[in-house]
Inverse folding.
């Protein structure tokens, strides 16, 4: 029987609910099983494919993860955020080399996507790659020094990692970009109040 036919036969089974006992099982196996179901239901969305890959990496299924990442890149080769999601998945898996390659691909895919660059810099920061994070955030800032939101987002991530000096630099840049913007001052206030935790 052909693979497509097998997938069509499996679809009704995979779209059924699982019981509570199943969800009490091994987290790694559940990550892979749930990603399999999601992929069968929605196999062609680039961002979802990148996220399935992340789940497969967590499940220890690297071949499936790489297959998802490749399909995501083929589907949306110029979407910087797809490459960022792939990089974030590698970072979560502790694979710095693969993450940095995905971030390099992101910058080639869309060299002007300051928001994806910022999100990738935050991801790098959150996973202990401060030097790479700082370098990438500088690139994002050069693309638009007036973007106070990105400055605050990165400054907040610096606070999360107890990098007060780095946070000060980015909050100062945010204040220079929009000194009359109350939302900027509030965002900085909350970053300090929350010790850099992600906003709720």
């Amino acid at each position: 029987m052909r693979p497509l036919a097998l997938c069509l036969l499996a679809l009704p089974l995979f779209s059924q609910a699982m019981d509570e006992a199943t969800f009490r099982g091994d987290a790694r196996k559940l990550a892979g099983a749930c990603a399999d179901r999601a992929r069968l239901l929605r196999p062609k969305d680039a961002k979802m494919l990148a996220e399935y890959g992340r789940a497969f990496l967590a499940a220890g299924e690297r071949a499936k993860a790489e297959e998802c990442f490749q399909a995501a890149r083929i589907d949306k080769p110029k979407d910087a955020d797809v490459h960022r999601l792939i990089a974030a998945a590698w970072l979560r898996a502790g694979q710095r080399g693969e993450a940095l390659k995905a971030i390099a691909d992101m910058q080639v895919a869309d060299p002007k996507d300051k928001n994806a660059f910022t999100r990738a810099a935050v991801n790098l920061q959150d996973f202990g790659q401060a030097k790479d994070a700082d370098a990438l955030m500088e690139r994002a800032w050069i693309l638009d020094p007036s973007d106070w939101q990105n400055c605050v987002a990165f400054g907040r991530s610096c606070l999360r990692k107890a990098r007060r000096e780095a946070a000060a630099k980015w909050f100062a840049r945010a204040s220079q970009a929009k000194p009359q913007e109350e939302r900027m001052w509030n965002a900085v206030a909350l970053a300090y109040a929350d010790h850099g935790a992600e906003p709720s």
Notes: Residues 27-41 form the longest helix (15 residues). The mean pLDDT is 93. The two ends are 49 Å apart (CA to CA). Residues 136 and 157 are 14 Å apart (CA to CA).
